[in-house]
Amino acid sequence: MAKEENLGAENMNREEEIQFTENDQSGGKPRLGIWVLVNVLIGIAFVFGCMMIVNRYIFIHVDQLKTAYYLSLLSSNIMFVLLILIIKASKRLSWVELGWKKVSIRAGIIDVFKVWGITMVIYFAYMFFLVYKGLTPPENQLSQLLQRPSLLALVINIFLIAVAAPFIEETLFRGMLFASMRPYLGCWTAVVISAAIFSGLHFELTGFVPRFILGIGLGYLYVKHQSIYPSIGLHALNNLLAVVMISTLS
Fold it and tell me: What is the pTM of this model?
């Protein structure tokens, strides 16, 4: 029964790939190509520029620090959703082209936990190295937001960080950024570069390496399954555990 479900999912993916090749490419040029890449990079820069202005306004006029962090996080999520929708509409892209494709649930879950295990081993090895060198990672704004939450705050944290953020970021970084690089740079070069951009845009130097490794794992899952759902699953699992650990240990 499980084999039949897996074969059915694989056949659906093959049919979607064939349909994508026949209907969504014109003149041999990939629709997720250079212009999508340019729009994504310009759009990301524009959003971060706008967020500098928005954050300045928020943190000046909002007295409660946690409330200000929530408003900042919500504002950035809304802007990135708008960016995705604008690029999707302007280039007439389908959600399937952006990686929203059916996948074998069982195979996806197994691979999510495999990649998560590898990233955790690398993460703890990296943290041990930092401690050995006498380096203490600074506490970032997100950690302050997650500390000592009320029940309502915990639910909001989980929704924003472990549900909304993975869908938004995976659609943007894997579904758009990686996919538009891939035809020109090759699969694994695009995985590495998109992972570096993904990690760098979090603007946390000490966390760059583990987040970069996570980005490579997310790209690997997308390449293997031709779907962003396993990537979303890994991203959500990683963020959920971070939220729960910081909330319970603070």
Answer: 0.85
